[in-house]
Specification:
oxidoreductase activity; Aldehyde Oxidoreductase, domain 4; Xanthine_dehydrogenase_dsu; iron ion binding; AldOxase/xan_DH_MoCoBD2; seven-stranded mixed beta sheet; alpha+beta; Ald_Oxase/xanthine_DH-like; 29 strands
Length: 772
């Protein structure tokens, strides 16, 4: 309930009446439900008389389809539909950046797991049995699996009409042939990481009386899904309505379509609701992964440690279809020297088509791969120079006013050196503990494989740079509708956006902004759907920045309308008014009126957009641009590891992070994001890799694809600093991705420090550590 206040109290006193605003850490409304198992995810959806959809997928990475016989499947009792590419009512192609992905394969399959046919049946087991009865005659072809060859070898098959290069981007600054006193170089490789979200792809499509369809689903971007689906269905946008259902994690893996078009096709074809839920193995085939990379790096420096040049060539395996590969190349090249001042740069980046699994968005998009390389290079350079690796980083760190190698000037705080300084001051874990040591704290100790023999300790650092929001000329915006009215005798705000809550706490952030801007306790969040304007994707660490800006703008418009009413009724100056504790307050006279009385039976509703500063494409030859990215974020990690050098086992003992967040809208949520991102980076450092051989996934399960558990997660100290970005709403800076990026190289640098091995591949495996 709204706290009652006396008219004699000041505006500052009245601010105390509202809790849970900006800078507070209110509990998430979905938090208890999720941990108690009561939260409804999209896989829990149900409709009367619904059917179950299933997908037939190619067993081959590359093959020609000679024929498809669906007759045996159609004759199975309980089967309502079997669809192929001939049944796609609209365009049989879609794509995020490039429309190159078939809804259902026509004459060629380009990766193992590509959808070929669909089934709708009255039971999921019936649907699976029907899939087994579809007969596809394949002519198996030799797959293209080496991305570096795909970039340069014209004798390889062209997987798409334009060839095998999705995007090539060079960046040149200064003298690309510059020389230096001390030079280090190496070749770095990064394996294919999976987003490993626990909620599988799922949705429920319901045919509508107007000939359209309503889809309830888990996604990251409602409007882009809607547009792609509408084109494939041959329907106008207004007849394809999407509503967000509970999302069990995303991390980029839900930016591309999975079951959206398929589920809607089956529902429209049968006239019945259709539900689709992937099992875990199908999920590995049914969504994109992180781009594997091969990167050639060379750093040159003066004898006192100043960087002279960086030269790099990077190859990114995009798999069968483009997805976000063009953006990966953009981010990787534009961030490829790290948060360092470098006068001379020559970087080349290629994104390639292969017959490996499709790769797309994943947390830290395009910044993870080069950060692994340039941060291992910085440690290698420090060793060659005989310098402390932290001092070397601080000596070369960018700061506000620095010019990036793309030509962009950092016109906001860039506290890179400070992050490292603060990180160094955090206490290290004790190394020599008195008395016998609990073997469970040792690498492999939980399996009783060691009692401390051959265990060595190492410490490693990293600091990284990551862009926030979309870049290179994209008009990145969000839309918010805010309604203020009286319900049950108190003022209540309703916030309606299409922004996807994927576990990052966006619902809470929207409530906090509305409470602070409108001075009301109760803020409801309307379910996200396509009945309001686009909010963009829940990716690129952008939603608090962009959708937060839209909610703020809409709230400001509502507040202005309230003040206009007050000015007309009471003769108050609108410029002197504020809202606090459910009351209208004047800076000059104090309490003016209860908000309930001002609103009466009327509601005030406003819709506003927020657009960030304009960005510009990189020059295709030089990579130069006045503003490639709207904002950069910075994070630093220190990792302490113990390595059993005999067994090749690693335990991360401590993983500390210092990060600039601009403004912590919800401090507890910020810490949670940093800890979660750090754990995902830990997974990439020591265990997570999809094994692909000849285009085929060899470990499509959580039995063989390992992810960190609570037993793998070390103590973490998080040092959050707030250096406000003057261009961003409330000064915020994207939080979610940077810790994932910096955790991985810090851990690998710590392992190298412990073992003395020149490790160049992540994840680090026991075989690498044992020299096998």
């Amino acid at each position: 309930m709204t706290t009652q206040t006396s008219p004699a109290r000041t505006p500052q006193d009245l601010d105390e009446a509202i809790t849970g605003g900006i800078g507070d850490s209110p509990l998430r409304p979905d938090g208890v439900l999720k941990v108690s198992g009561e939260y409804a995810y999209s896989s829990d959806l149900w409709a009367e008389d619904m059917l179950w959809g299933a997908t037939l997928r190619s067993p081959h990475p590359y093959a020609r389809i000679n024929s498809i016989d669906i007759g045996p499947a159609l004759r199975q009792p309980g089967v309502y539909a079997v669809l192929t590419h001939q049944d796609v009512p609209g365009e049989n192609v879609y794509g995020l950046k490039v429309s190159d992905t078939p809804v259902l394969a026509e004459d060629i399959v380009r990766y193992q797991g590509e959808p070929v046919a669909l089934v709708a049946a009255d039971h999921p087991e019936t649907a699976r049995r029907a899939l087994a009865k579809i007969v596809v005659d394949y002519e198996v072809l030799e797959p293209v699996t080496d991305p570096e060859r795909a970039a340069h070898d014209d004798t390889l098959p062209k997987l798409h009409p334009g060839g095998n290069v999705v995007r090539y981007q060079p960046i040149v600054k200064g003298d690309p042939e510059a020389r230096a006193d001390v030079v280090v170089s190496d070749v770095y490789t990064l394996g294919m990481q999976d987003q490993a979200f626990l909620g599988p792809e799922s949705g429920l499509a319901i045919p509508a009386e107007d000939g359209g369809v309503d889809l309830f689903l888990a996604t990251q971007w409602l409007h882009v899904d809607q547009k792609q689906t509408a084109r494939a269905l041959g329907l106008p946008l207004e007849k394809v309505r999407f509503t967000m259902s509970g999302v069990g994690g995303a991390f980029g893996g839900r930016e591309d379509l999975s079951m959206q078009i398929h589920c809607c096709m089956l529902a429209l074809h049968t006239g019945k609701p259709v539900k689709m839920v992937y099992n875990r193995e199908e999920s590995f085939y049914g969504h994109v992964h992180r781009h594997p990379a091969k990167m050639y790096y060379e750093h040159g420096a003066t004898k006192d440690g100043k960087l002279v040049y960086v030269r790099a060539k990077m190859y990114f395996d995009g798999g069968a279809y483009a997805s976000k590969t063009p953006v990966v190349v953009s981010n990787a090249t534009s961030l490829g020297v790290g948060p360092y001042e470098v006068p001379n740069v020559r970087i080349e980046g290629w994104g390639l088509y292969t017959n490996n699994p499709p790769c797309g968005a994943m947390r830290g998009l395009g910044a993870v791969q080069p950060a692994f390389a340039y941060e291992l290079q910085m440690d290698k350079l420090a060793t060659a120079l005989g310098m402390d690796p932290v001092r070397l980083r601080q000596l070369n760190a960018v700061e506000e006013g620095s010019t990036m190698h793309t030509g962009q000037v950092l016109d906001y705080p860039a506290p890179v050196a400070e992050l490292l300084e603060r990180l160094e001051k955090l206490p290290l874990p004790p190394e020599n503990r008195p008395g016998p040591r609990d073997i469970r704290t040792l690498p492999g100790g939980l399996s009783n494989t060691t009692h401390g023999e051959g265990v060595v300790r190492g410490v490693g650092y990293s600091v990284i740079i990551k862009n926030v929001s979309y870049a290179e000329g994209v008009d990145d915006y969000s839309t918010a509708r805010v309604r203020l009215e009286v319900i049950g005798g108190e003022p209540v705000a309703m916030v309606h956006t299409a922004a996807a809550e994927v576990g990052q706490g966006l619902i809470t952030v929207q409530q906090q902004i509305a409470r602070s801007e409108l001075g009301v306790e109760r803020v409801n969040i309307h379910p996200a759907d396509t009945n309001v304007g686009d909010a963009g994707s829940s990716s690129a660490s952008r939603q608090t920045y962009i959708t937060g800006g839209a909610v703020r703008n809409a709230c400001e418009a509502v507040r202005a309308a309230v003040f206009d009413r007050v000015a007309q009724r009471f003769g108050e100056d609108p410029a002197a008014l504020s809202l606090s504790g459910g009351k209208v307050v004047s800076a000059a006279t104090g309490f003016v009126a209860d908000l309930v009385d001002v609103l009466g039976d009327d509601a005030i509703e406003e819709t506003r957009e927020y657009h960030h500063l304009r960005t510009y494409e990189m020059d295709p030859v030089t990579g130069q641009s006045p503003r490639v990215h709207v904002q950069h974020a910075f994070a630093a990690h220190r990792a302490v590891v113990e390595v059993d050098t005999e067994l090749g086992l690693v335990k991360v003992v401590q993983l500390d992070c210092a990060q600039d967040v601009g403004k912590a809208i919800n401090p507890d949520a910020v810490v949670g994001q940093i800890q979660g991102g750090s754990t995902q980076g830990l997974g990439l450092a020591v265990m997570e890799e999809i094994k692909v051989e000849d285009g085929k996934i060899r470990n499509p399960s959580f039995t063989d694809y390992l992810i960190p558990t609570i037993l793998d997660t070390p103590p973490m100290t998080v040092d959050v600093i707030e250096r406000a970005d003057p261009h961003a709403p409330y000064g915020v800076r994207g939080v979610g991705e940077p810790p994932t990026i910096s955790a991985t190289p810090a851990i690998v640098n710590a392992i190298r420090n412990a073992t003395g091995l020149n490790l160049t591949h992540t994840p680090v495996t026991p075989e690498q550590l044992c020299g096998l």
